[in-house]
Amino acid sequence: STIPDALLQGTCNNRLIQVVHDVWPTAKVIVTADNPHTAQELYDAGADYVLMISKLSAERLEELLSEHCNDSTHSSLTDLFTQYKDRDNTIRGEWLSKAQKW
């Protein structure tokens, strides 16, 4: 499941892991956790991999900063962030436009 427990209704990732293992014993199970404690619980329950969005986001931000951040490239980092914001706004606008048609 790519949905953390906080957003699931009527079930949880722990339960999904149990169901998957009961129905498809050889399936690889990837779930999402909001924090390290929950991630460990999900691994203990049999998850093959636990995705933590906050950790991935932090790792990506560290990559961006390492790649683009030094005294002489401050403006290039600012340009990069502006480019990403513009891209995200475009995607968000396209999604909202499609959602309004539904």
Number of helices: 4
Distance between the termini: 25 Å
Strand order of the largest sheet: 1-2
Fraction of residues in H or I helices = 55-70%
> What are the secondary-structure elements, in order, as H or E?
HEHEHH
Please state the overall shape, judged from the principal axes of the Cα atoms.
Answer: flat
Strand content: 5-15%
Mean pLDDT: 80
Name the poorly predicted regions.
none
Provide a descriptive summary of the structure in words.
The structure is a single chain. This protein has helices at residues 13-23, 36-44, 53-68, 74-101; strands spanning 30-32, 49-51. By secondary structure, it is mainly alpha-helical. Strands 1-2 form a two-stranded parallel sheet. Helix 2 (36-44) links the parallel strand 1 (30-32) and strand 2. The radius of gyration is 19 Å and the shape is flat.
Secondary-structure blueprint:
Blueprint: H1 13-23, E1 30-32, H2 36-44, E2 49-51, H3 53-68, H4 74-101
Parallel strand pairs: 1-2
Keywords:
102 residues; mainly alpha; two-stranded parallel sheet; 4 helices; 2 strands; flat
Summarize the structure.
The chain has 102 residues and is mainly alpha-helical. The chain is built from 4 helices and 2 strands.
